[in-house]
Amino acid sequence: MRPVEVSLVAEIVLGSPSWLAAAMLLAAAGVLLVLWGYARVAGPRWVRTLAALLKTAGILLLAALLVEPLFSSTRPKPGSNLFFVLVDHSRSLQLADRGAGRTRAAAVQTQLAQSSAWLTRLEQDFEVRRYLFDTTLRPSPQFTSLAFDGQASRLFTALETLGQRYRGQPVAGILLISDGNATDEPLPPPVLRTLPPVYPVVVGAAEGQVDLAIARLLVTQTNFEAAPVTLVAELAQQGLAGRRVGLRVLDEEGQEVLRRMLTVPRGPEPVAERLLLKSQRPGVSFYTVHAFLEGEEEAQVGRTLEATLENNRRVAVVDRGGGPYRVLYVGGRPNWEFKFLRRALDEDDELQLVGLVRIARREPRFTFLGRGGERTNPLFRGFHAPGDDTAEQYDEPVLIRLGTEDREELRAGFPKEPEQLFRYHAVILDDVEAAFFRQDQLSLVQQFVSQRGGGLLMLGGKESFAEGGYARTPVGEMLPVYFERRAAVPPPAEPAYRWRLTREGWLQPWARLRTNESDETQRLSKAPPLKSLNPVELLKPGASVVAEVVDPQGQAQPALVVHTFGRGRVGALLAGDLWRWGLRRSSLDDQDLERTWRQMVRWLVADVPQRVEVAVRRIEEGALGGVELTIRARDEQFLPLDNAQVHVRVTQPDGRSVELTAAASDQARGTYVASFLARQAGPHRASVSVVAPDGSPVGRRETGWAVEPQTEEFRRLGVDLANLQRLANETGGEVVPLDGLDAFVRSLPRRKVPVVEHWTWPLWHQSSVFVVALACLIGEWALRRLRGMP
User: Fold this and answer.
1) pLDDT in tens, 554-605
2) Does CATH number 3.10.20.30 belong to domain 325-365+391-488+495-605?
3) pLDDT digits over 637-678, tens only?
4) Per-residue pLDDT, 7
5) Is residue 109's pLDDT more than 60?
6) Smallest Cα–Cα separation from 292: which of 229, 231, 250, 230?
7) Confidence tier at 401 by pLDDT (50, 70, 90)
8) 3 state SS for 37-82
9) Which run of H or of E encompasses 221?
10) Shortest CA distance to 325 belongs to which of 604, 635, 691?
11) Which CB contacts under 8 angstroms, 24+ apart, belong to 547-552?
């Protein structure tokens, strides 16, 4: 219902307009007689003038009563218009402004007392509805027993709910008592303009608090082994310039794992502090970052210099899940490289190396090599075999399997089907020629990278790259280097190559082992020189040279080149004897080679898709908000998996679990969605399991998130006056001071309201009008007699 303008000035209506002419004639005649009479009377001019005016006023007033004048106007119809009193019930009102002597909540309670004159006057003219809001909107008939303990201030959600709930009803306005600090998203102007007038009542001061807060907490994970997890804590402060503050990181058991002290610089800009955290626990872990003033590490509320301690803690979610990652190593012959690679990955719980190593090449079958009538390779004589058909023949290579999960894995050699190869996350080819693979296997490797998103790394050697015949093959098409033509640089007689990082390599944490450039340069200067290199002439567009080798003449050649292909990553390690760094340990740290391999393989598998992937998106629904879990499931060929059963188990902060079932999304195939609305603040952990339509398990995935309403609630301690002013401007209201409620309520009957009533006030029925007319005539008569005038 549209509001109606209440008339501020009453209109004059004539009750007997037929008497207007007679009244005017009588008034004119009376005035003329008065003027003519006083013109003939002797006496002081001011006496005559005043007496004439009094008598004229009395005559005109009596003449006006002949037409029965009525005053007519409009006013709000009592009890017909709704008026909402909406009170912020969140914890931010428990703050006390500096010098105020009481909390904001106490000031609000004083104004909401039952004896408040403004509230009584408001109820006389309007039907008043009382509401509280924090995480939800709820009625409060009497505004009694207010605790102000709400964990969030969903201000805009409350306003939008009121507007929708009472749409079409006569709502005169909303009296909003709040500090203006909202934890939900602002409403756009078109939506605000559909609301009734909002009259924000300012509670609190805009500034003056002393506080230390963690404004933001960013978590980044890297393949750099020295600092796998980086926490960036952005500290905001008020009134603490020059003070010493501390940061400490606590694990899930409450044990301190890191501490840092720093001095707050002068200026309002936030301070960003990097914390390097070494998280060894696989899966999802929660770490609490706590900021405190020096000497107040264990301070309690009321015993600290800060206005609040609610914004001093935040939870960091560290996800080391996704593993273990399985890496398939294919070697053309036993060598030192595989030994050190396997030793390095054995120390990483997230990486599993499966080896397929050729120990003997295929050879022509000659009957005289074996016993009479024997067709199998005598190298396998004495091993159990079900028959000659399954034993290794003379014209087949002899392969050895290492690190397999069962007896059937890689039993037939390199995989020939997608579901066999796609179970791995990366493939490493080491000194094995292209002829070792069938054409369909080479194409399968290309599908593994482009479609499945796996990683591929080719190591240098006598039978790698151009020397291995990979030119114009599906694998050669994926490599980041061209090797159709040999490099023009001839190899030196006694090669001695020094490893050196390029500019791109310095920017890649996984390519270096030290935390700064000087230490890394010193480390590489002590590394033994390399002697094996597969030279290349050109790089493919988009390829990046991470490292290069320099010969004694200062000529640099690419040593480690990477790029992306399809959905996966491809690397070319052109140096073929990185194992030399592991033989001469006196010149290097004992773990340098192992760490080099681990970080390189971590980069290779870092973004490889899993069969089950989970994405978490925050939503504003529910009391404390919630999350939407988007699960993507793939079959063994990494195609979208439909008709799967997806179960989600959410573990809440108190240890209780909630079971959810994800429904298939209509947006994309193989995508399932589940929503969870939080009812507790703190860390939440979700375990997702997917079962294929045939009942076979697809995979499990763990994820987590933290519900921290207090960080948003106390992000700003001062009153957000700009937010309140914007609400008033967009809805047609005005900002009201807390101590100006009485004057504001008195002015409401003169404002726009939806339902009004017309009223009239007959002037000629009022005895006071006759008293005034009679007083004028008596005053004129008395003045004449006092002055001796006739």
Assistant:
1) 889 999 999 999 999 999 999 999 999 887 655 555 688 999 999 999 999 9
2) no
3) 999 999 999 999 999 999 999 999 999 999 999 999 999 998
4) 47
5) yes
6) 250
7) very high
8) HHHHCCCCHHHHHHHHHHHHHHHHHHHHHCCCEEEEEEEECCCCCE
9) strand 211-221
10) 604
11) 547/499, 547/500, 547/501, 547/502, 547/505, 547/511, 548/500, 548/502, 549/497, 549/498, 549/499, 549/500, 549/575, 550/497, 550/498, 550/500, 551/492, 551/495, 551/496, 551/497, 552/492, 552/496
326: how many CB neighbours lie within 10 A of its CB? Answer: 16
| Cis peptide, bond prior to residue 196, ω within 30 of zero | no
First-to-last alpha carbon distance for the chain, in angstroms, is 66
Residue where the block lists tokens 């070319």: 572
**Coil vs helix vs strand at 17:** helix
What are residue 232's DSSP bridge partners? Answer: 218, 274
Contact 156, 191 (CB under 8 A): no
Q: Alpha-carbon distance 22 to 719, whole Å?
A: 65
Closest by Cα among 286, 282, 273, 276 to 229: 276
Within a 10 A sphere around the Cβ of 378, how many other Cβ atoms?
11
Q: Which residue has the tokens 């899993």?
A: 610
Q: How far is CA 169 from CA 1, 82, 160, 756, 759, in A?
A: 6, 8, 15, 14, 23
Question: pLDDT for 27-43, tens place per residue?
Answer: 788 788 877 777 777 77
Q: Which residue, among 591, 585, 641, has the nearest Cα to 613 in the 3D structure? A: 641
Write down the residue that tokens 């591929």 correspond to. 456
Sorted by where each begins, the domain ranges of the chain are 11-76+758-786, 82-207+718-741, 211-320, 325-365+391-488+495-605, 612-709
| DSSP H helical ranges for 423-516 | 439-450, 474-478, 503-506
C-alpha 416/C-alpha 437 separation (Å) is 10
Cβ atoms 359, 398 nearer than 8 A: yes
- 392 has pLDDT over 80: no
Same fold, 211-320 and 612-709: yes
Cα–Cα dist 238/655, whole Å: 37
pLDDT tens-digit readout, 407-438:
899 998 999 999 999 999 999 999 999 999 99
What is the topology classification, in CATH, of domain 82-207+718-741?
Answer: Rossmann fold (3.40.50)
- Name the nearest CA neighbour of 683 among 219, 83, 55: 219
Class of domain 211-320: mainly beta
Instruction: Give the pLDDT confidence score for residue 749 in this predicted structure.
Output: 82
Q: What is the rounded distance in angstroms from the CA atom of residue 654 to the CA atom of residue 528?
A: 55
Class of domain 612-709: mainly beta
Select the more confidently predicted residue: 154 or 26: 154
